[in-house]
């Protein structure tokens, strides 16, 4: 991949990350105080994961394709969180499901960041 192509890919990824962050900020549902703590922790974790993806893309640790895949996974987790919090109550079972989804996303991010961009997956 030429330097120019790589720069275009990184710019495109950063634009996607910025757009996703902007959308996430404007699409925050109002949540009653009772579940705000649970939602806050979930939101903080999502934000940290999003930051890790953006940093990996900017540093070149993630290819454009890897970044796109991780962004889609984050979007799925965001959608699941919105669905869980829609009724204003977060049950223990829903909290477990969210933690499981976020753990899986975190694992995928870590795995991709440990691989150098463009390297074949480790056996």
Automatic annotation (TrEMBL):
UniProt keyword list: Signal
Origin: domain of life: Bacteria
Record field: compositional bias (Basic and acidic residues): 42-51, 66-85, 105-123
Low complexity: bias regions: 25-40
Annotated spans, Disordered: 25-123
Cleavable signal peptide: 1-26
Full protein name: DUF4148 domain-containing protein
């Amino acid at each position: 991949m030429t330097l120019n192509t790589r720069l275009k890919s990184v710019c495109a990824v950063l634009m996607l990350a910025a757009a996703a962050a902007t959308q996430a900020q404007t699409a925050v549902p109002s949540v009653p105080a009772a579940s705000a703590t649970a939602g806050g922790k979930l939101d903080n974790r999502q934000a940290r994961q999003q930051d890790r993806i953006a940093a990996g893309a900017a540093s070149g640790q993630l290819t454009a394709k890897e970044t796109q895949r991780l962004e889609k996974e984050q979007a799925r987790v965001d959608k699941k969180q919105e669905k869980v919090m829609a009724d204003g109550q977060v049950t223990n079972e829903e909290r477990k499901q969210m933690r499981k989804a976020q753990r899986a996303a975190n694992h995928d991010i870590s795995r991709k960041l440990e691989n150098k961009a463009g390297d074949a997956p480790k056996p």
